Amino acid sequence: MLLFVFKVLCWFVFLVAAYNLGLIVFRYRHVKFAWNTNGYWAPLLPFIGNTYLAVLTGRRVNMLTTLLWAERYFGLPCSFWFSYKYHYMCNNAEEAKIVLNHPKCLNKAQLYGDVQYLFRNSLLLIDAEKWKPRRRYLRNGFKSNILKSFFPTFYQQSCYLVEEIKNVGPEQDLYKFFNKYAFMNFFLTSFGYQGEEDLDLVNIKKFGALIDSIQDEFVKLLANPLIPAFIWIRIPPGAQLRAHRAEIGKVIKLIIQDKKKRKLQVSEYVGNPNERPLVDLLLSDAYEKEYEDELYEEFTLFAGAATDTTGHTLAFCFTLLGMFPDIQRKVYEEVMEVVGDHTIQEANIQNLRYTEAVVSEVLRILPTIPLYGRYCEEDIDIGTKVVPKGANVFISAFHIQRNPDYWEDPLKFDPTRFLPENMSKIIPGSYLPFSAGPRNCIGQGMATILMKITVANIVKNFEITSKHKSIKEFKLESCISMKTLNHLDCHFTPRDKA
Ligand code: HEM
């Protein structure tokens, strides 16, 4: 028996040595770059590369916790190998700026392969050449005129939220609560349902619930790097994911049928006929002919991308406002000065400067998409080094935005950093919650307006408190959108209007 174990061990060591040797020979430039980046070498294993090091710590594995672990033990920047695919983890603003704006870094990192099962043909993942015209076209759904037309819906939904929050108990999962709200706002506006009364609410709610549960199932896939995605979706643990995916296809089909029945004629749009809500762009003849098969993935992507990111950011906003009453008071004073006892008007939005600064500061300290990656189609000179062709660069917005070289006292919650008079002090590339360059977040403007209206209306109506004492006590994890492992404590007490 002992001999057998010894033999197996020898074979294992031999195979690992051969695999590493093979990498050194066939991926010499990547290996050399990795070596120069942090100068240590842990044997790489087939399929999982060096990420097993994080598994050994016993923590639940995902990109952020793995990166935080690597930061602690090796320092940043560092190198991750997922099988033979090399990923450089960048925490430098200048390098991030170069990569995100480089025309040969428009494709997503190879690690995104794991999300292909859901979004292969969507804007998020498609190849740069195909992506360019599609992004230009879909951008029309997020132009300022369109965003302005969303205001009444956003405001109305924020008023419903004021009522709903009165029933929020201490056990409420704030992430799920605000995700639901964010989804509804996205759906009613981008799916062009403003002002319509006979909505297909059953299917809309089903769609929202499916987006939520499909993300939960996806987190399970991403948190298990030992089983590759293409195997996971074919074995029992992936059964729920498969079922949700099929179900979401059916629901979207019903919603599309319903929407097509009500589809507005192009002539009914004022101004530029190309500027229309997202759904009308997706259902236009031009789009449908070309990308018909890809419609479902696009719908799912947009709904998913709009929901958790905005929902989690709102949960963070209110918790931090509860933790920092002085800052909350300033938001309240601004809202009362700009809006007073009236309802919030569209024209008020641009004058809520401090409120906007609060949202920006929350996204600096707690960026809901803390890291994202690009693939280098050719050698990319990032200033002090050249990333070799075929390597991937992951930008850690999380680390850049907490780096004391760029932000004084980085863990201090200080919205004044984002007041107009201080904006020129922000170092380019040091603030990236929505990414940057041509492939940044298409929904940035929409999310910002919605969050401003929501924060203003909630602070106007409630005094917020939280038991959390410091940002350092948040244990963070991120498979898709970042959140805390611990429950967020946040209480909303109606303000005394007397
Ligand atoms: C607080 C809210 C949000 C944050 C922090 C956020 C952040 C981001 C980030 C960092 C990316 C780049 C990801 C990457 O490079 O892999 C991204 C891409 C994207 N976001 Fe957002 N997002 C938010 C809200 C939204 C909303 C409301 C929508 C839709 C209405 C949206 C739709 C998208 C889409 C479609 C992409 C892919 C864009 C492309 O590749 O061309 N996001 N978002």
UniProtKB/TrEMBL annotation:
It holds the Pfam family p450. The lineage of its organism: Eukaryota, Metazoa, Ecdysozoa, Arthropoda, Hexapoda. This is Cytochrome P450. It is a peripheral membrane protein. Belongs to the cytochrome P450 family. SUPFAM superfamilies: Cytochrome P450. May be involved in the metabolism of insect hormones and in the breakdown of synthetic insecticides. It comes from the Eukaryota. PANTHER family: CYTOCHROME P450 4C3-RELATED (PTHR24291:SF189), CYTOCHROME P450 FAMILY 4 (PTHR24291). Its cofactor is heme. It is found in: Endoplasmic reticulum membrane; Microsome membrane. InterPro entries: Cyt_P450, Cyt_P450_CS, Cyt_P450_E_grp-I, Cyt_P450_sf, Cytochrome_P450_Monoox. Keywords: Endoplasmic reticulum, Heme, Iron, Membrane, Metal-binding, Microsome, Monooxygenase, Oxidoreductase. Heme binds at C441. GO terms for molecular function: heme binding; iron ion binding; monooxygenase activity; oxidoreductase activity, acting on paired donors, with incorporation or reduction of molecular oxygen. GO terms for cellular component: endoplasmic reticulum membrane. Its main location: endoplasmic reticulum.
